[in-house]
Amino acid sequence: MDEKIAKLREWIDGSDNIVFFGGAGVSTESGIPDFRSVDGLYNQQYKYPPETILSHTFFLSETEEFYRFYRAKMLALDAKPNAAHLKLAEWEREGKCRAVVTQNIDGLHQKAGSKEVLELHGSVLRNYCMRCRKPYPVEDIAKGTGIPRCSCGGIIKPDVVLYEEGLDSCTINKSVDYISKADILIIGGTSLAVYPAAGLIDYYRGNKLVLVNKSPTPADRRADLVIHAPIGEVFSQL
């Protein structure tokens, strides 16, 4: 692994056009559970399956039950950025990292200092009234009970992409633009199992595709460098 770290370090030192594409594994090292691992949310027992609770239909029909799960399992407001978040923010300040494309909704990249963060699945930090669009901070959601309502009486919804909802086209287009022009594309902490997000890597045209993940992914055979290790552990050595 030392040789692979050295090679990655060499590539990064020689580049000013890095794009990072990350998933849940970037946040698990900050104590935020993922969905699909042995200890993930999908393998825990609830009254309804998590993928059902986190759907657009369920949100509209069983809003109170949605928020009971959401407050308990989806909000981790005390989580702190880890070595991966901090290194990416450092690279951006140095003019090396052009953008972070993330499937995570926790806002930890911004908390670490990254500015150009494209959140494919939205963010728990943003919430809005479905009737008048008034914004509400996440603290209002976290400390409340039952269904959060706006001063106008409308239901407040988190600005996260639920199952059955489409991704924001502007975010997708910007992500494609950054990835297609990148010198180095680093994919980290994702099983590349969630589409359409995982399909974005198909737009990469360079010859320095790096995959950092604890377990193998469907894209390993396409990558120019594969490191099977926790991403925080790898980035702390760069």
UniProtKB/TrEMBL annotation:
Protein residues bound to nicotinamide: F35, I105, D106
Chain sites annotated for binding Zn(2+): C129, C132, C150, C152
Stored Pfam families: SIR2
EC number: 2.3.1.286
Cofactor annotation comment: Binds 1 zinc ion per subunit.
Cofactor entry: Zn(2+)
Keyword S-adenosyl-L-methionine appears in the UniProt entry: no
Keyword set, alphabetical order: Cytoplasm, Metal-binding, NAD, Transferase, Zinc
Catalytic-site annotation from UniProt: H121
Source domain of life: Bacteria
Binding positions for NAD(+) per the UniProt entry: A24, T28, F35, R36, Q103, I105, D106, H121, T190, S191, N213, I231
Location within or outside the cell: Cytoplasm
Keyword Cytoplasm belongs to the record: yes
Domain named Deacetylase sirtuin-type: residues: 1-238
Reaction it catalyzes: N(6)-acetyl-L-lysyl-[protein] + NAD(+) + H2O = 2''-O-acetyl-ADP-D-ribose + nicotinamide + L-lysyl-[protein]
Job of this protein: NAD-dependent protein deacetylase which modulates the activities of several enzymes which are inactive in their acetylated form.
Similarity section: Belongs to the sirtuin family. Class U subfamily.
NCBIfam families: PRK00481.1-1
Name by which UniProt lists this protein: NAD-dependent protein deacetylase
Protein source organism: Butyricicoccus faecihominis
Encoding gene per record: sir2
